[in-house]
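Researcher: Let's continue the batch. This sequence belongs to Phenylalanine--tRNA ligase alpha subunit, and it's 344 residues. Same format as the previous ones, please.
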Amino acid sequence: MLDRLQELKEEALKKVEAAESVKELKDIRIAYLGKKGPVTEVLKGMGKLTAEERPKVGQMANEVRAAVAVSIEEKEQKLEEAALAEKLRAESIDVTLPGRPTVKGARHPLTSVIETIEDIFIGMGFTVAEGPEVETDYYNFESLNLPKHHPSRDMQDTFFITSDLLLRTQTSPVQTRTMEKHEGKGPVKIICPGKVYRRDEDDATHSHQFMQIEGLLVDEGIRMSDLKGIFEQFVKRYFGEDREIRLRPSYFPFTEPSAELDVSCAICGGSGCRTCKQTGWIEVLGSGMVHPNVLRMGGFDPEKYTGFAFGMGVERFAMLKYGIDDIRHFYTNDTRFLSQFHRV
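Model: Same format as before. Here are the structure tokens for Phenylalanine--tRNA ligase alpha subunit:
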């Protein structure tokens, strides 16, 4: 048995030396040192040995097991070190190569303007409301005092999907939907940002899809002077403390009385220039007191409640703020244009 153990030792050590992978070493460990391995078989036959032979065979068997185990561990360590060295060689980095600049994204100027306007109105107690871009004829027109065949509908050349469904031409439907949710109980104090769609020819100042932000405040005792006070705060916070405002009479079917808001020209300070067409003023949005019919459609009693509403084009406010001369720049995804707003 001693000779057999010596043979097994030499045989196992040769296979360990020849092994080229950790898997082969694992197989050798199982084959020679496992429960069904030859060393174990030798130990099982020790019962047939004399009392004098058993200690010698037992000692020899332990020496064989230890020698094979140590040899396997050493070879396994060498193979792992060699594999790591090869991996490091393959993944080596040439630190002398020039770095590759990372192109960072930036907030879109329209997004920045919307967030700025939202922050201003939220600071004045308004909340942000949203609604569907695919609207019904009722919410987009009828609930806003624009019954079927009303001439003012022609002012908004509409994308109709069916005779009753359309792409909304304004964010005003959100106002009616919000008033309905309040079930005739004020106050309602919201702004409604979102996309709107009209069949316009795309040019420097028009787009078939653009962004609007509309505002609505309905409560008891709301007056036109409240609207003017809101505008004064908004304009000074958005355009600067030195800007002045004026309200000009206008017409919108969903407000009565209606007014356009003008802001003093930042270029000439009100003296007149090409930008303001020599008037000293720049028109920025439309507004007015909510028409009694609109209040009724929204579930409010016009004898008890009054309110004001306004609507502004986000692109116009962005163009005025950043001096952009063509609305199409916002939608062409030209990185040369967008990269100017990395710090906006």
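Researcher: Any comment?
Model: The chain has two domains: 2-90, 111-341.
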